[in-house]
Task: structure prediction
Amino acid sequence: MSTDHEDRIKQFLGLMTPEEKLGQLQQLAWAWDTGPGTSSTEEAEAAARKGLLGSVLNVFGAASTNALQRIAVEETRLGIPLLFGLDVIHGYWTTFPIPLAQAAAFDPAVTETDGEIAAREARSNGVHWTFAPMMDVTHEPRWGRIAESHGEDPYLTSRYAAAKVRGHQGTDLAAPDRIAACAKHFAAYGGPEGGRDYNTVDVSEQRLRNLYLPPFKAAVDAGVASVMAAFNTISAVPAHANPHTLTRILKEEWGFDGLVVSDWTGVLELIAHGFAEDGAAAARRALGAGVDMEMVSTTFAEFGRELLARDAITEERLDDAVARVLRLKLRLGLFERPYVDESAAVTEPSPATRAAARDAATRCMVLLKNDDQTLPLRPGLRSIAVVGPLADSGDLLGTWTVPDAQRRFPAVTVAEGMRAAVPQAHIVCVPTGTATGAAADSAGQAEAVTAAASADFTVVAVGEPPALSGEAAVRSDLELPGDQRELIAAVAATGKPFAVVLFAGRPLVIGDWLDSAPAVLLAWHPGLEAGHALADLLTGAVSPGGKLPTSFPRAVGQIPVHYNHERTGRPYDPAQPDEKYVSKYLDLADGPQFPFGHGLSYTTFTTGEPSLSRTGIPADQLSDGATVEVTISVRNTGDRAGDEVVQLYVHDLAADIVQPVRRLRGFERVTLGPGESTVVLFRLGAEDFGYWTNDPEGVFVLERGAIDIYAGNSSTARKCSRLTIN
Ligand code: GLC
Result:
């Protein structure tokens, strides 16, 4: 903490009235890029003018934010500047692939670049604070917000969370190209029963601490400026009023000195949860548990004075919350520079940021299947058909785009990308129906099939549109919406070569048409440069190297299916498929359609056995910081350059808290030319071998015993070496 900042905070606290203090804890919504004076913003404008407002969200635009800021700074008693927040989740004007896609790159630098570019574009338009990165680990593809997540693994998510915080915040929050980040949603929001958004999460302490919390700890260690509370309950105590997570763990155990903001009306929703009788109780329980700022609902402002008067909340807690708000404003430099330079506002993507988004998209896409080297396209094709509901769609940016981004800067379409990449070929584009499963899905299918029958190659662009992805977009059926499966079958029936390009914000169930598709390239929702990135991969200009950050289920009935599962006392053994009394389905093959870490290349690779610097190590040496070095060789055994992600997993064979069959504890993406090889080095320490127990006080244990260390290019890696902790 800066002593100068702390001194100034003390001065302000000494000057502020209780109403002004409570005002700093209030965040109200704005109406995007509009200045004061419109009917939809009068509540926020009036509160700002009275000095009773701390922050505004859903505001952007240099002129608009400056006009609103002048009210707070120049028309109020203390002139405390406002904090402007906006959801900049995967890009501002330059929309990057959705976070789930970025995780598929297995390259945190992708998300750090996204964070840097988004920060520069957002801050220049008056935004100080983004509500990102979202770091909810999830095993729930039905849950639409898996699109914003980084998948099913806490280690991968932790690496990305820290990288995004670095990208957004840099080393100086006061810099004109940096913004405050927000670790969300605290906590365990990714575990809703039934995959239904906002639904119940009942979780043991060990699963909370081993699966859901590690990314938040990584974000706090990376210096994240704020944390957002989650809508769900955590074992029947709402996250918005949970002192165990918000204060005991986050603020006391981890020493977090930043700001905890509620989610949208999350405080008032304590009444709907059945946790608070009324608004006053909601305010008391949320503020008392550790929420510092209330987003949109106004219980703190409405009932704070009464609660203080009857000691239902303490002056100390109120001052602590106000201090956290002022601390963030001081760190952002808002007192010195409350306004932005309107002439310097970034108004559109640049060639450089487009190139970065294109590179990111190529690194995120995952080649799921490629029989007989169907891809990349052979040189010299004379005609290429691009068909399907997403063949010429610009709506591929993904969920959570900045308002106006979709209208002003839609995605490059598949057809546009192919025309630019293969100018010598005749590209026929036949859009078919919609991708939402609405009516008229089959419109154009006959024309599409005719085009496929006469083309040298066909790209079938299918999937789910962003409208079926994101918050409150939960699907109970994960098949391709509408008649898209029929389109694939009809194209396959032509007997001509084709590949399926799959757009999605989640894992989909793709079992029934997979056999008829010779190649499937998962494009996710790839953002602004979608079409160009796709063409780069389809033509082979770039070799795909993405890996799945989340398992693809064979059927919805199989969910949850994830690699980091417990073994059970009766595990399924593929060597004995007919064994009855084991953990399996009667009507479904074992395991996911595609496992965590899966992804093909246009070349082939081999990875060697994990080589350990030592096969045994005393537990107390590990606890003192000793590490075991693991080296893994990898070779490109094919005839073209490509990327491989070397993955390292550990498994504790016997522990007092049963451990997952695999835990990812290292990954590195390498680029190798034909015949080239390299050796990747990982260092494993106590944090890689130990685990949290069910003790609510937070007990991390490192046990003696055997640890299997696996190396390979997916979570099904077989090559293993054993370490003994003694
Ligand atoms: C939404 C989301 C949260 C977002 C907030 C502000 O409901 O849950 O992630 O940051 O409201 O838009």
